Amino acid sequence: MTRRLAQWVTSWPRSTVATAAVLAILGAWLGMFHLALDSDTDSLIAPERPFMQEYRAWQKEFGDLEGVVIAVDAKGDTPDRTKAAEAAVDALAAKLEVLDEKFVRSWSAWIAPDEQWRLASWAASDAELKAMAAEADAIADVARGNVAAHPVVVAALSATRPREYLRAPGGKLLFVEAMPVKDFSLLDPVGEPIAAIRAAVDAVRAEHPTVEIGVTGKPVLQHDEMATANRDMAVASAISLAIITVLFIAVFRGVRRPLLAVLAFAIATGWTYGAATLLVGHLNLLSTVFMLVLVGAGLDYGVHVVSRYGEFRKTHDAREATALAIRHVGPGTLAGAAGSAAVFLGAIFTDFGGLRELGVIAGAGLILCALAMVTVLPALLVLLDGGEASKPTTAATVVAEPDPAAGKERAPFRVQIATACVPIIACLLFIPAGLRFESNLLELQSPQLESVQWERRIFADSASASWFAASQATTIDEVAAFHARAKDRPEILRTESILDVIPRETAERAALRAKVAGAGADLGDQMPSPDAPAAVRAAWLIWQGASLPMRDVLPEAIAPRTISPNGVFMVRYLPKEDAWEEEPLARFVDAVRAVDPSATGVPVTQLESIRDMRDAFIETSLWAVIAVTIIAAISFRALMPALLATATVVAGVGMTIGLLPILGSHLNLANFFAIPMLVGLGIDSAIHIIHRYRDDPGDAAPTIRAVAFTALTTAIGFGALVFAEHRGMRSLGIAMAVGSVACMYVACIVLTTILEWSRRRRAARA
Fold first, then answer.
1. Would you kindly state where each structural domain of the chain is located, as residue ranges?
2. Are 465 and 574 in contact (CB under 8 A)?
């Protein structure tokens, strides 16, 4: 096949480049105008997962409840400090009120006096409601404006009711909650709203320097994480591509050929964007990193082509050198790319949706990069690296077989192999420590982020008020049953529902409230003017509340989290322990499911997605080993060299896992896919070296140097992330950089020593 491919490319180089360029332009156009962005983190989870279906159903019932949390710390318990904090909340509310509707959909900071009066007939105790019903006629009369006839009622209704500021039970922080407008078609769906909210907070900070104000909440944490990670990845990709290009030029002592490889890589990138549009149709928060994969690995295929082309170019013209390079490097390049792609495509069989899409796009991209490097790059070399120049020499290209006895002064090969394996064995001893899996997502973010710091402060103040699981109930009795069962679970700090606001509804209470409503049947829907006496407004609000359904009387700060527009009740469960840690989170979710097996919420989806990701790591790692072994066997048409290639990769990955804890890093939810990636990328090196020893055993040094260089470029491509602010990205950079060097060591030192030993044994026997 590669012979025919070489003949086609060298015979029709202009057609090859022109066709490739047109397809690249088409792919870039598809990517630019038709490749959508889905930045909803929930889209990372496979929609067919049962826990995700329950979560989506709950969201559909109650709407989006993931808002921005603004916390205000009075920095003290004195009345003056409290007033200063309340004044800051009032200022924040005023700023949010005037924000454009395209930024903030709704906000809440307190329960206003009017809301308290409207809720009065529902929130009153049984005794208070009986007294209210007994004075129903008087309340209605005062609402009509007749205040002189009912001095006792007027006195009670004239009492000033202060605002009830939002704070968690037992907590000291005051809260303002804002629901930003979200556009998930943008890479950052809440970027502009959060920027507007933070500008408002900054202005209030300047006006109220005696209090501390912080912004956090799930949308803010995700926004900050994405901004940090994207900035780190963009900088790392640009720096690594520049460094790799410079190294490419330096190592190969020229500018033209490396730049032609970069041009072929750019064409492959255009193809990949088109493939991503056609195969998936959108990018999610995880699959956006596919370019980092291509920069770290896709350009490596061109290194082998340029390296082998340079060897043949010494004795052949450009066209013949290109054909020979394709024939000799093509099989290894395509087999290595197939192995790497198979690793990524194996993610299709996992339950983690975000990884599936990354697998499809990155797998397709690696195959397309390999195709570009064995077609477009050779065609460019024919056109731009000497054309039809005659052969500088007709010397034979066959290298004489070295004398098997040569090099006897060196240590025996068995000693060399044993010595080379010492670092591997030493690293393997640390594998038990390296297999620890860190699943705390908050620990992956930069500790310098304000949102991360305030998330911790909120947990310390009110046991993570931003985390809750939820049940749905159709009746008050069902709500009460959930409350009762939750009291027996020590993992649940507290349960919140409509019963925290309104006593359990009974027929007697409904009848008493109907009496209050009936007494003012002639009152209109027009609320008394602001200039009316306070008692008149309060009486009218009490009558209105008694006349309205339960949900309509609830304050805006309470209603969305208690009753849906369809009348379904929500019961919220808050964790007692730090729910960012997996073990406490698992205990909390188990406790909630013991109360209600159908309970859902962010803690449930978080725990299940963590488990899905860990399972995906194990499954893809096992699949990677199996897949690369099969592909290597097909490439070599023999089992033993395939097993040797796989053993090389496994040893390199084992060294990586052992080295990570020594470097203060562990596998986590950001870097776990580095292991199967190293399997896929490492097999490429082993295949190239073994192919070279099978084809030209006497002169494998150029291929070994090319493998070492490609490992170095991969280490640089990902290693630039070592300086990332995002700790998850930094850990990925460490894992890939260390893994690339470890795999290079095993391939270029251990594997080549074994192959050389085997070659000399065969030569001696011959």
1. 1-34+252-391
2. yes
